[in-house]
Every structure is written in structure tokens, then in C-alpha cells.
Structure of Amino acid permease:
Amino acid sequence: MSADQPGKTPAARGIGDQEHLRVLGYEDSFHRSMSLWANFALGFTYLSPLVGVYSLFALALSTGGPPSIFWILIVGAGQLLVALVFGEVVSQYPIAGGIYPWTRRLWGKRYAWMAAWVYVWAMLVTITAVAEFGSGFLGSLIDAPVTKEVTLGLSVLFLLVAFAFNFSGTKMLGRVARIGLGAELIGVIGLGLYLLIFQRKQEFSVFFSTMGVEGDANYAVAFLGAALAGLFLFYGFEACGDVAEEVANPARGIPRAMILTILVGGVSALFSFGGYVMAAPDLQAVVDGNDIDPIPAILEASLGTVGAKLFLVVAITAFLSCVLSLQAAASRLMFSFARDGMIPGHAWLSKVSPRTAVPVNALIVACSIPLALCLLIYAGGSLTQITAFAVIGIYVAFQSVVLAALRQRIKGWRPAGPFNLGRAGFVVNVVALAYGVFAMVLLALPGKTGVFLDDWIVLIGLAVVMGAGLLYLFIAKPHTNSHQPEGDAIAVAALLRAHPGNAAPGVVDPGKPRPTSVSD
């Protein structure tokens, strides 16, 4: 890229970034200052295996025993198929905002409005949850008492520090994301390998032992109940596409960054989860549910007091990077939503800072709503109830892209980006959709506590968010304010294939008119 103009790729490598956007009906609004390595780091720190494994380790073991580790492989394989579908879509549509523009151009305005509405709320709630979980690590590091006031203050600190980094610009976002990536790799792969090699207290056969977790029931039921161990881990890779207009050569690089996020994240999670299992001094107590927070004791026993403190520093860095990446992804989604006039306050939300080239007002919202949710939790709200719909909401948004892509394929769409699965694309799309439906069914299964709200909270949360979105959509009709293209995947593919920049050198007729944008 160094020999080319900014935002351009050589003719032999295809259409330039700026011209690609023009074909899609947009002009550059950002600085393309994020490297592909930083783009991968952004997706990886959003996915954050350290956060995911730490948050669900005890729950997974007490529900499904040591074999619950295999959910990391199952879900990783399923989400890799989803990432491949996303890769083809973003390669044709390298537009900021990810889920929203992809569903709009694959299906239509109203469909995209609902997908984006569900996804943005899922991300805002996830930001809140990660900040709240991270406050526990920070509190342990500074030996702060575990009170509601301390939790609120430290959660707010996470949100504001991440906002300050995001506010500084794309280069700072990429820099901190790379630091977070290093922290994640040390905290999951490095520590996991150390525990597996030097602190092993179990035999490897333990991963095939249920340790009696099923009781008198069938183990298959217990294993299915532990699915969250994987389902909570493998999202975040789509954040690579949320900042597509801030990356050079995104049509080629972002699909690779998404796939790498899944592969490295899966390996990291396996080492981390496996290391904690192997190093647990009393694994049976964890499986029996008697030790609900076993990781601090494992770290203390394996690393000593000083080593455990150092791990806390690494973990805090990872949590901060995760909040940072989530804020960045949410703000780009809201910007993309607002740029097309599809959301209240769209003129304000679509403003980009001329100095830092970031959507500052959307960033303010991406920080303010989680702050409000933290205050709600402090006032007596339940973190579990507030965040219950977040994971299923994200899966619903993901599968809205997969379904829309399959619909277009059936109508004759052949993705025209440089990342292309060819004939295998249809099969991958079908299997990715089947996996997604299976995952959503598992997430939606009611609990068995006998308390209605607790058992059905996931579906209640999803129904509230989707119901409010549908009500607003049909009453306010926000889609009528937007005149950008929709459902044009087949037409855009034809334009891109016909574009002189995508032809082999010496083939293009110099006198042939340039194809116009679908918005011309």
C-alpha cells in the first residue's frame, strides 16, 4: 500500500477503496488509518476469550462438567461458517456499521432497521456487563471492598477511560486494541500453557469424565445446558467490519481478520479453559457447584500472591480493551444507521469530528447508555436480568445477515468482492443458518428454577427489545426518511464485476463509460 495513494489499491488487485465506496453510493468520511493487524486486534479484543472464559468457567463446569470444553470447538466451527458468510458480504459491501448496511443491501430498509435495533441494544448492554465484570478485577487489584458504590464507581471508570481512548481517534483505537490483544494472548494462551504444563493436577482423561454432574438424568441434557460456555465466546469478529471505512483495502483484509479472530480466539479459549480445569486443586467442588468463583483460588495456588496480582493487571487491560472495542463497534453502527436517516437525531449522530475523524456524538451515546444502565443496576436492577437478552440478541442480528445472504443467493446473487467462496458459498450459507437456528434454540430454552421471570428472562428481554423496535418502526416509520439503496446485492455485484478496476490489465476498453453507482 505504501506506493499507492491513500485509500487506493493497485489496478491489478482490484477496484480502489474510494471508488468502491462511490459505487455503493458513499464518499469517504473517515481516515483509513487502521492497519489490518489493528483491525484483527479490534475483533479479538471484542471477542475476548479471557473475559468469556472467566465469566462462564464455573457455570459451564457445574452444568456440564469438564466435557463442556467441547462446546468451544462446536460453537467455534459454527461461527467460523458465519464468519465466512460475513466475509463475502463485507467484501462486496465494505461499509461502516456492519450488520445494518449489510442487511439493508441484502434485503431492505425495514428488515435492516430491526436487525440494527436489536444489535445496537445487545451491544450497549454487553458494554455494561463487561464494565461491571471488569470492576471486580480492578477492585481485587486495589483491594477495594466489594460494595455497590465501589462497583458503580469502577464500572464508570472503565466506561470513561475507554471513551477517552475512542475519542482520541482511530489510530489510538488501533494502538490500544493491539495492547489489549497482547494482554489477551498472555492471559489466555500464555497462562493456559503454563497451567497445562507446570501446574497440572488432573489427567487429560478428565475432559471425558462427567464427574457425576448429570445426577440421575441423561448426560446429554446436562451437556446441552452447558452450551453457553461456547455461545458466549464467539462473537465480536463482526466488529472488524464495523470500521470498514477506516481500514485500507477492507474488501480483502477484513474477511481474513474475521476468520483469524475466530481461529485464534478458539485456540486461546481452549488453552485457557483447559488450563483452569487441569490446575484446579479441587475440581469436584467446582463441578458440584460448591465453588462458584474458582479462578482466583486457582491463580493464587498456581502463581502465588504476586503472580495473581500481575494476572489481574493483564485481565484489567483485556477488559478495558473489550469495552473499548465494543464502544467503537456500537458507535460505528449508530453512525451508519444515522447517516442513512434511519434513527431519531440522525443529523446529530451522523456527525464526524473533522480533527479525529470519529463519530463523536455516536460515541457519546455508546458511553452514556451503559452509564445509565450501571446506575440502574446500582439502584437495584439485576445485572443478570438486564443482560439476559444480549447474547441471543447478538445471535438474532447475526443470523439476520446469514438469512438475507441466503435469500439473495436463491435469487441469483454471486458475491462480487475479492473474498469469495465460489460454489461452496451456498452450502456454507445453508449450514451457517442451520447452526444459527440451533444456537438460538439453545439460548432461548427456559430455565428450570420454577421462578417465571428467571426461567423466561432471555425471551422476555428479546421480546421487549424487538416489540419496542417494531412499535417504533410502524408508528414513526423511520425508514421513510432514507433514500439510500436497498436490496441491491445482485445489481451491485454486476456493477463491481463490470468496473474497469476489476478487469485484467489490457482487457478494459478505454472508451467504455464507467458504470455508475446504484445511487446515481
User: Anything to note?
Assistant: The CA atoms of residues 451 and 457 lie 10 Å apart. DSSP finds 21 helices and no strands in the chain. Confidence is low (pLDDT under 50) at residues 1-13, 503-520. The first helix runs from residue 17 to 24.
